[in-house]
Amino acid sequence: MAVSLKVEERATRPRSIRNKLRHEGKVPAVVNGYKIESTPISIDEREFSKLLRENGANTVFAIEIGGKKVNTLLRDSQVDTFTRRLTHIELLSVNLSEETEAETEINLVGESVGVKAGGVLTQTLYTATVSATPEKLPEGIDVDISGLEIGQSISVGDLPKNDDYTIVTDAEEQIVAVQEAQELPEEDEAAEGAEPEVIGGKSMFETFDSKKSRYASVGVVSSLPGELIDSICFDLINNDGRVTMHFSQEGSSVEMGIDLPFGYSNDFPQEVYAYDDGSRQTILLPHEIRQR
């Protein structure tokens, strides 16, 4: 059954109109599709958010444009990254007697016997594409994982058929699996006292020039061969957790930036781990690195 949604036609010029709408608690929107030209509208943000919470994203919204009733589905919505408020809405006009495709969430139900036995559950598919008449589109697909044992998985093709809709997503797509927990390898005690790796007669950090960045120092390592630039990544380790080192290639050198959180203590990491094709080398952290 369609849910009534109040909308108002709006002008598109000047651009300041959009700011005025948002100040009034309305969201700029557009409706297009079946038997309707693209029409700019505005929607009350609170009302629309309330209807979404109560009915779901695949609800049919009945709106009125120019005295004509139009049945619509939510095609797309944009949200501000920082405020999390709606910034734009797109509605699709539909024919209630014709099938249409939409995305729907996949919900895992139950507790896997494999997880109870110590396995690790991994979900790789979170939405599926379904085809149905608008009023029969599901808000979600429940997947029972209670019988899933270690080493077993569930794919789209394993889901039971439903008379109301057809799943369009590839039947071979894996939804969830339970795997045996992997034990972490023990640290190689012999590697703890390893000397800094030397390439071409120089330590990777022998020529480290520091300069200020947003959070901490940035340096240039000029002794790292170009063929290794894309195969080596770095982690800075200290007692408080991980600190990320970024690097970018410029010719044969690597520019590195170290992101340290504000308020970071003076107890800087004392070692760097460099990974190359799975091996790990311990490299001394240069003393030139200092907090901004």
Automatic annotation (TrEMBL):
Q: InterPro entries annotated for this entry?
A: DUF960 (IPR009303), Rbsml_bL25/Gln-tRNA_synth_N (IPR020056), Ribosomal_bL25/Gln-tRNA_synth (IPR011035), Ribosomal_bL25_b-dom (IPR020057), Ribosomal_bL25_C (IPR037121), Ribosomal_bL25_long (IPR001021), Ribosomal_L25_dom (IPR029751), Ribosomal_uL5_bac-type (IPR020930)
Annotated Large ribosomal subunit protein bL25 beta domain ranges read: 101-181
What's in the GO CC field? cytosolic large ribosomal subunit
Pfam families named in the record: DUF960, Ribosomal_L25p, Ribosomal_TL5_C
Q: What SUPFAM superfamilies would the database entry show?
A: Ribosomal protein L25-like
Q: Which residues form a coiled coil?
A: none
Outline the extent of the Large ribosomal subunit protein bL25 L25 domain.
Answer: 5-91
Q: Which GO terms describe its molecular function?
A: 5S rRNA binding; structural constituent of ribosome
Q: Name one GO biological process term.
A: translation
| Organism superkingdom | Eukaryota
Q: Which UniProt keywords apply?
A: Ribonucleoprotein, Ribosomal protein, RNA-binding, rRNA-binding
Q: Per its UniProt record, what PANTHER family does this chain match?
A: RIBOSOMAL PROTEIN L25/GLN-TRNA SYNTHETASE, ANTI-CODON-BINDING DOMAIN-CONTAINING PROTEIN, RIBOSOMAL PROTEIN L25_GLN-TRNA SYNTHETASE, ANTI-CODON-BINDING DOMAIN-CONTAINING PROTEIN
The protein in question is named Ribosomal L25p and Ribosomal TL5 C and DUF960 dom ain containing protein
Provide the species name.
Trichuris trichiura
* Phylogenetic classification of the source organism: Eukaryota, Metazoa, Ecdysozoa, Nematoda, Enoplea
